[in-house]
Design brief:
The structure holds two protein chains of two kinds. Chain A is α/β, with parallel strands linked by helices. Chain A has two domains: 157 residues, 3-Layer(aba) Sandwich (D-Maltodextrin-Binding Protein, domain 2), CATH 3.40.190.10; 136 residues, D-Maltodextrin-Binding Protein, domain 2, CATH 3.40.190.10. Chain A is built from 15 helices and eleven strands. In chain A, α7 crosses α8 and α8 packs across α15. Chain A is globular, with a radius of gyration of 22 Å. In chain B, the strands form three sheets. Chain B has a two-stranded antiparallel sheet. A two-stranded antiparallel sheet of chain B has the order 3-4. In chain B, strands 5-6 form a two-stranded antiparallel sheet. Classes of the chains: A alpha/beta, B mainly alpha. The interface between A and B is large, with 68 and 65 residues.
């Protein structure tokens, strides 16, 4: 008995010593640390494809845009990440404002679509547009049919009493998607009217989720009838055989410019720059659609998949990224929203 | 006379060898090992680094060297050790990677020099200084002059200071700073007293209440319910003839191997708007499907299911401590069953109930994953801290303030549990044998117990079935076609050009989790058992406070540890973030109390006369520990290792800020998937984790026989994470 005990102690120690060795093994390989703000499947495909094509070991962490920003900011004195791929543009702009991302003019820049180049201008080349995604909402077609509701088509439909407790959106305090929604309402209707709308909407909201894409999924699963999210997120859910239809609101809608930044002080800056150039090529950008992400790519040569929302049918507003990406506006509006809308009685 | 003299000479020659050895380590730290950077390994040693402020590190060692020839002077050694440590810390904290650490020095002296984070050289130097200090103190008579004991004590205290107190202090410091890092005490009070924390609007205004009240209310509710349920289970187990042993055994293992958020996840699949039960009931009675589960009800159910087994373990112990002879006496005096229960049994178990309540209270406060998954619009402190850091408002100061509020709640409960209940003993087990049969339960108490535990058991079975099955159907409840789709996404293996490789999305995090948990395992056990040995076998000043400090890390919620580690160890002097090391360290210090408990329980069974025999025969304390105690502690070693492994695999809140692409962990991956609503993969992964850990436990049990693990379950008074908090 004592012998087996001794053996098992020895085995346990042996195993952990092996694990120590494995953990400490040298990494002579070229590497790149990527913080990734888009869908997990897309992130993984980007990492493995790049690794396959160049031999660079890509170390990818998938986080929400807010989490990436928080991490880059926390690590600014001793950065561990090299490149920040994707995620809503606002945190990228804010990072650029704080100069925690690196200015870099890619040779690919002039070949990109206008909005991607404008994004780079706004940030003094500290970021660049990677894709465009329009805001909208999805609704559960089965539930709408079962309850004999009119199909919602406009923002105004969502505050109708028949959608009481049936609308879901993310909390703009934690989600870039929901912040885009808040900023869109303010720009579409003016601040006062916009907040009136949000207060009316509050009565119909069943939950402010933490993650931006969650309402789209919830609508697909029937947890809610309407989920406010980016249209490409809704399409992704619909592609998985869920009964959900995407709506581009009739009043017009805001959009995000998913961006790409280099982290200032990156340990593998040269590798990061090479990756940056690669990520803007059509070969890299067409990966998105194969993994179920249907944003509009910033490289015009990238084939737009048929599932992607048709930009010509979407009424985009003149989204003021400079104003609504600045930390002051953000802090003020978020404070006001939390106080007057989120904490308000229903 | 001759013999005494020889012996003394032996001691005299042996002891400076200790000293010389550590001096050699100290010099090696200065001259040979890379002074900076743990992972780079290219930095020159301290004396060649060309940084003049490192030179004062030499004199303490020279001083110690000079007095280790001839007659050693203990006071000089103490002074040398302290001087070395103080200068090491002072220069490291004053001069950091971006120059002076404090703005006011920069304004006073202009921009200063800079240096990167400390490395192996610095570690060797620090340990050497600590040992010089220990030697000096021992020669001065501390701990009966035992160098090994003083050294071990200083080492443990030093590690706890560095990895528990320093990070928590960093949180306190960041609470009084604004986002740019400048000192802003008014902002601190504004945040601390803010209405979003303490508001009582849910009572008066119909708005939602402050997050502090939410948390306290939730925790109190969970504390009461878990205690009630735990008591019902314990009464049925011990006071009725229902065959409960296998059931209790399963119940006590479940919370250990279940990642904390899994229950919340299963509840959504069962009772969510589109959940199986909801749909079934809605179709049956034509009711509108509601979202009642999201928010306080959901969190409460999930936490009650998760923490009741812990309460059960506590109360089983308490109930067994009630001597049946007292109850028999009562019944002999013609008291009815109910009267006996009310006037004899109940008062005797009351302190145990308070204890169980406080544990439920602390566990609920510290729980992060269930509120995250199922919380809906109901905010609690642990999740609010998380979103203050990662949310769009990025307010680290607010996170720190909330962390302080949460920490003061849990520490208050912990202190109450230790000092208020700790001294109150209602144990009726004395040296005298108490033969007797425990009283049967009064009829309606038994009926109540059954009425409570049967639905609870059904719910538990439903939850675990959902977890095990849910990942293998297309969409549980809606479309029950069996599928391996999610399993393959997570755990597929493909054949590529270079042979087979693991292409599933979960492999990386799964293997890394095992790797990190294995690395943390021996350290947790060693640290815990060493501390237990110091506590049980040695007498020294401040022993009680030392024990309190060692156990305290249990009461610090994981979210706080996570935030604190990021604040403390991201920048020099100690830079560890982004490594697997920091995750292993977080695990080791969080799970240390488990090791301590396992060690203490086992040590108390080993008679001291064995130590004394060994000491009398001329062995020193280290030799006794190594050759006498440790071999007999093997069961405790294994218990501590297994627990630390399993707990490391299921931890989530402490590490959610520490994971990186290379060191991603299973639990954070699952939470991330569940957060965006990808339930298929999340559930399948959870099921794999649960099954994997069950296999690990079974294998260990087979390997070491029934001795430990079996006994713990069958005689529930032996260690478990729950009782770790309870006893003493």
């Amino acid at each position: 008995m004592a012998n087996t005990t001794r053996n098992s102690v020895a085995t346990l120690f042996g195993i952990s010593a092996l694990a120590c060795l494995a953990a400490g093994r040298a990494q002579a390989q070229r590497q790149l640390v990527m913080y990734c703000g888009v869908d997990e499947k897309w992130c993984r495909a980007i990492a493995t494809t790049y690794q396959k094509e160049t031999g660079v070991q890509v170390d990818m962490t998938r986080m929400s845009a807010g989490e990436v920003y928080a991490r880059v900011r926390a690590e600014k004195d001793n950065p561990h990440g090299d490149v920040w791929f994707g995620g809503t543009g606002d945190p990228h702009l804010q990072a650029a404002e704080e100069k925690i991302t690196e200015a870099y003019q890619s040779p690919m820049l002039p070949k990109l679509r206008d909005w991607a180049q404008r994004q780079a201008e706004r940030a003094h080349n500290r970021t660049v547009g990677l894709y465009l995604g329009a805001l909208g909402f999805g609704y559960n077609t089965e539930e709408v049919k079962r309850r004999r509701l009119a199909q919602p088509a406009c923002w105004a439909d969502l505050i109708k009493p028949e959608f009481k407790d049936e609308v879901q959106m993310a909390d703009p305090n934690s989600s870039g998607t929901a912040w885009t929604m808040l900023a869109t309402m303010v720009q579409l209707m003016g601040e006062d009217k916009g907040f009136e709308y949000l207060k009316a909407l509050h009565k119909n909201i069943n939950e402010y989720t933490k993650a931006g894409a969650a309402p789209a999924l919830a609508a697909g699963q029937g947890e809610t009838i309407v989920g406010i999210a980016f249209q490409h997120d809704v399409i992704d859910v619909a592609e998985h055989n869920k009964p959900v239809a995407v709506v581009s609101p009739c009043e017009g809608t805001g959009y995000e410019i998913g961006s790409l930044s280099l982290i200032a002080g990156a340990k593998h800056m040269d590798e990061a720059k090479k990756f940056y150039d690669w990520a803007l090529t059509q070969e890299a950008q067409k990966i998105a659609a194969t993994t179920g992400s249907f944003q509009i790519p910033s490289n015009p040569l990238t084939p737009v998949p048929p599932e992607a929302p048709d930009l010509s049918k979407i009424k985009l507003i003149e989204y003021d990224f400079a104003k609504y990406g600045s930390s002051e506006t953000r802090k003020r509006l978020l404070g006001k929203w939390t106080d007057e809308v989120k904490n308000a009685p229903k | 006379m001759d013999g005494r003299g020889k012996e003394r000479a032996e001691i005299a020659s042996a002891l400076p060898r200790f000293l010389l050895g550590w001096l050699a380590v100290g010099f090696a730290g200065l001259v040979l090992l890379p002074w900076y950077g743990l992972d780079e390994g290219v930095s020159p040693p301290a004396l060649l680094a060309g940084r003049p402020w490192l030179l004062p590190l030499i004199p303490p060692l020279l001083l110690a060297l000079s007095c280790s020839f001839g007659r050693t002077k203990p006071r000089v050694l103490v002074a040398a050790g302290v001087a070395g440590l103080v200068w090491l810390a002072a220069q490291a904290f004053l001069i950091i990677h971006r120059g002076w650490a404090f703005v006011w020095i920069t304004t006073l002296l202009g921009p200063g020099p800079s240096q990167p984070a400390l490395g192996w050289g610095a570690i060797a130097y620090a340990v050497a200084c600590l040992m010089l200090l220990a030697y000096g103190l021992a020669r001065l008579g501390v701990c009966k002059g035992d160098v090994f004991v003083v050294g071990a004590l200083l080492l443990v205290v030093g590690l706890i200071a560095l990895f528990v107190f320093y990070p928590v202090l960093c949180i306190l410091a960041s609470a009084v700073r604004d986002n740019d890092g400048s000192f802003a005490p008014t902002l601190f009070f504004e945040k601390l007293l803010s209405r979003s924390v303490w508001g009582l609007d849910c009572v008066f205004g119909g708005r939602s209440c402050g997050v502090a009240w939410n948390t306290v209310a939730e925790a109190a509710l969970v504390g009461v319910l878990t205690t009630f349920l735990g008591l019902a289970f314990a009464l049925v187990a011990l006071r009725t003839r229902m065959p409960m042993k296998p059931l209790l055994r399963a119940l006590s293992v479940l919370p250990i191997i279940t990642p904390p958020f899994v229950i919340g996840l299963a509840l959504i699949l069962l009772f969510g708007r589109a959940g199986m039960v909801t749909v079934w009931v809605a179709n049956l009675f034509d009711l509108p499907r509601s979202r009642w589960i999201y928010g306080m009800p959901g969190i409460t159910i999930a936490q009650v299911l998760a923490f009741t087994p812990i309460s059960l373990l506590v109360l089983l112990g308490v109930l067994q401590g009630v001597a049946p002879s007292l109850e028999e006496a009562s019944q002999t005096l013609r008291a009815s069953r109910w009267y006996t229960f009310r006037t004899v049994t109940w008062p005797l178990i009351r302190p145990g109930l308070a204890n169980s309540f406080l544990i439920g209270f602390i566990e609920s406060m510290a729980d992060f994953a269930n509120p995250l998954v199922i919380g809906g619009n109901f905010n609690v402190l642990s999740t609010d801290i998380f979103f203050a850091v990662v949310g769009a408002s990025h307010d680290q100061g607010r996170a720190a303030v909330l962390a302080i509020v949460l920490l003061s709640f849990t520490l208050a409960a912990f202190v109450a549990q230790r000092f208020w209940l700790g001294h109150r003993s209602y144990a009726t087990v004395a040296g005298k044998g108490h033969i007797g049969i425990p009283a049967q339960l009064p009829g309606f108490v038994r009926a109540t117990c059954y009425a409570v535990i049967v639905p609870c058991l059904i719910l538990i079975v439903a939850v675990y079935c959902t977890i095990l099955v849910g990942g293998f159907v297309v969409s549980i409840g809606r479309d029950n076609t069996p599928t391996l789709q999610y399993f393959w996404t997570a755990f597929s293996i493909e054949k590529g050009v270079g042979g087979w490789f693991l292409s599933g999305s979960a492999w990386n995090s799964f293997l890394v989790t095992i790797e990190v948990a294995l690395v943390a395992m021996p350290f947790t056990a060693a640290l815990g058992l060493l501390t237990a040995w110091l506590l049980d076998r040695q007498q020294f000043a401040f022993r009680r406070s030392f024990e309190f400090l060692a156990m305290m890390s249990f009461a610090i919620p994981g979210t706080i540890i996570g935030v604190a580690y990021v604040l403390a160890f991201n920048v020099p002097p100690v830079s560890l973030t982004g490594t697997g090391t920091i995750i292993a360290i977080a695990f080791a210090f969080r799970n240390m109390p488990v090791g301590i408990r396992a060690g203490l329980a086992n040590l108390s069974q080993i008679d001291r006369s064995l130590d004394e025999a060994s000491l009398t025969l001329g062995s020193n304390s280290f030799g006794t520990l190594r050759r006498v105690i440790l071999p007999m502690l093997r069961p405790a070693v294994i218990t501590a290792m297994v627990y630390s492994f399993v707990r490391a695999m299921t931890a989530v809140s402490a590490v959610i800020f520490l994971v990186t692409g290379r060191y991603n962990l299973a639990t954070t991956y699952i939470v991330g998937r569940a957060d965006v609503g990808d339930y298929g993969v999340a559930i399948v992964y959870s099921a794999v984790l649960v099954v994997f850990m069950m296999l690990v436990l079974l294998l260990i049990q087979l390997a070491v026989g029934e001795r430990r693990i079996g006994r713990r379950v069958e005689v529930p008074r032996i260690e478990s994470p729950g009782t770790a908090l309870v006893q003493t």
